[in-house]
Fold these 2 entries.
Entry 1:
Amino acid sequence: MRNWIFILISLVLLSCNQTQKEQIDYIQTESQQERDARMQWWKDAKFGMFIHWGGYAELGGVYDNDTIDGVAEWLQFYKKIPAGEYASLIKGFNPTEYDPQAWAKLASDAGMQYMVITSKHHEGMAMWDSEVTNFDIVDFTPYGKDALQPLADACRHEGVKFCTYYSILDWHYPEANKELFPVYRDSIMIPQLNEIMDRLDPEVMWFDGEWIEEWTEEQGKELYNHLRNIKPELIINNRVGKGRNGMQGMNKDLSYAGDFGTPEQEILEDASSLQWESCMTMNNSWGYKHGDNNWKSTETLVHNLIDVVAKGGNFLLNVGPDSKGRIPEESITRLKEMGQWLQVNGESIYSTVRADFYKESEDIRYTASKDKKIVYASVLRWPGKQLNLKYFKPKKGTKVFMLGYKHALQWSYDEALGLTISLPDDLQAEKNRPCQHAWVFKFEAVANEVCATPDIRSANQVNPKHLLFTNKTTIHLDTETHAVIYYTTDGTEPNTSSRRYTQPIEIDQSCILTVMATSASKVNSSFRKVEMMKTENINNVDLRSKSSVKYSAEGPLSLVDKLRGSENFQDNRWLGIEGEDFEVIIDLGEVKPLKSLRAGFLHQSGAWIFLPQKVIFSSSMDGKTFSKVYEKQNTVDRSTEDGIIDIVASVDVKARYIKVYARSISTCPSWHAGAGAKAWLFVDEIVVE
Ligand code: FHN
């Protein structure tokens, strides 16, 4: 009898344990140590390949002989093509030149340690042979073969970690909307994810499309745990839940699901102790797009990699293969050149950690060995005969090397000026250098006591790169107490025989202000530079709405600096207002006869940037009572094309003050991917004639 009871209890425990085993809540139970161990390979990897490839490659951003403005993989959305019609457009997908082995080797030769490929993008077509649906590359297209399995095998053969992207947002299945979404989730999405886990065994699951209103943080947490229970060592990005803070990519707080933040098309401003990965295109589009030739240079890509890694992140760089399965030559060239750079300098990237200082100036980044004993100084512009580094003090007797150059370099150290490395004459000729684009100096060192770099303050800005002013402006410099500040206004680097800062500086001409500070028993600060630009004919620009910190251009005066924002909304030319109306009052300084007024706005619905629904120009003699001189209503809907739109008014008034008011749509419309989220208003260049 006792045996039976024992067996019964064991069976109950086993089944509980089995159930229990399937239900580990990793979000609640995984320790930081366990998480760090799980992510170690990913943190050491630093550099990965992103691949956007699907039926959209068949179209390449062109529909009805019209090339869309936005990213190619969004064509179905931009052209509002019903799922059935869209499926017929991509039905001919037949990438006969697809060579997974070549792709894996290209990634490996580029120094990319992992690869993330779109297993299913928003269009809904699965790039593997899914049992869940016939809308997959095997059953639906003449290609008729699984695209992912051979790539996963090729990656493992090349020593590249294979990872998959999966879009929660799905434009194909009618169930993937509103109250039917749970049907799509449980009958299509989860079963497909189980297939991917079972057959392809990815190391990272990279979610996207989480912004839809049908998806919730709670579903994200459940999905996170579900996948981790299938593969405990799986790494999952933060787009599995709702934690992402827009394109900036980091989680709003630590309570949200996901192992790393995902800044997109941008790099964090500062270093972060959180795990993060910046994903970027090489041109403008993720998916292959005919005619998209806005390629970033290899130098820019290498500098981005260095900047991201110095700030503690990974760099996921995208390629968009075409309808035949060919990766564009421009991408291949850049990847090969990045691989050459990493051949020489990979030691300063892979398996490094953030140094005590990650940046010394615009041209100097630091990384460190895991034990922090070795410092790598990456210099983004050839320093000439001497390189001065202030933030780290070499250990006595250490040798200083430039990676790729076999001889140790001469160096000296001064308590005030820091480390000076002498670069031999033979290296002054480019052809004698071991690499291009950036050079890495390696030495044993400890972080220095460095005097704080002075802050440059104007009335409403701190440390801008450019500072616009009318007539004249007063600049305040400040730094740590007891430090002495020196400055120049001719663009040269100040030293202790330059002008000493004793009171606010009056600036009435355009100039380049450069500052630095010294302090007893510390190394001199690094330099800070600001280009002071005097604007003509404007006495003041009073911005009445709050522009976002991220898109503040060079302050309100950038609205009248004759420098127009471009289609690239991140060109630091646009004033971005999130979710609110725009209003500015321009003071011309005196009453003037006005003939025309113009205000420029940007519409890029893919970046959640929309035209204003109304624009009003008003004028005033005294800056208090304004009378409307022009009003324009705009319809902002799905048919609104992307681009820069100018609102122009011919007027015939005398006035000293001009008010420009633009009413934002405030929230993304219901038909938009960001439905309900704050909408952006981007304004630049107001012209008063
Ligand atoms: O809508 C997608 C877009 O097509 C692309 O996949 C990027 C890459 O991360 N993610 C979304 C936009 O945030």
Entry 2:
Amino acid sequence: MEIRNTAVLLAAGRGKRMNMEGYKQYLEIQGAPLFTYSLRTLTESPVITDIVITVNEGDEDHMRDLVRQHGLSEKVRAVVHGGAERFLSVYEGLKAVSWPCDFVYVHDSARAFLDRETLLRLDRAVRETGSAVAGVPSKDTVRITDDEGYGLSTPARKNVWIVQTPQVFRLEDILLAHSMAVESLDRLEAEGIQITDDAMVAETMLGIKARMVMASYNNIKVTTQEDLPLAEAILKGPSFR
Ligand code: CTP
Ligand code: MG
């Protein structure tokens, strides 16, 4: 039977670090809202069969209108509102999956420049390993410090990866891991553990060791104003998508 993969496309943030009016997922870049770029790549990819989009509460109709206007409705099965934190938005997206689904591709809409090759590599990896995370090897040396900034260690650069999205898991695994994380919020907080991505939830809750998969140095997260000229340059570049 054919494998069915759902993308959970996250667009329920508030883009505070962009320091602008409105939310960054709707910011127009070269004539189209930021979220439409990765939505188009997901829609055109043979790897993805279904898509859920998470949005801020009250944005559902606005999002559905934009998706329609940009001709991207084909695979969008649900638009749901997210939560106050990124991982809570992921959880809402996962709970909305009410159709057959093998793997879930959790993706930040702020990573507009996802390319089709990365999706193909993730697909090959998860069929083997059951979970995979997009990223790139660090070009910089990374130094681990104590709270005062004094060096504790310097990991071998070949083992240091910059973590991106998509992050891919079996639906039942990542759903269970997130429901456990939500149940354990008080304990996590008491232990000073801050959830930063989905792989961390899967690792902390279920001991899942997701395999890193080479993505692209263009797969940046549009986060601050400084990223905008870079985003324009990537869009104009020869290798986009
Ligand atoms: N996101 C989400 N729900 C949240 C927070 C974030 O769906 N409660 C999404 C954002 O829309 C974004 C992605 O997760 O596509 C990555 O988050 P980030 O880059 O931090 O975006 P924002 O949270 O919107 O920005 P900021 O942290 O600067 O406020
Ligand atoms: Mg954020």
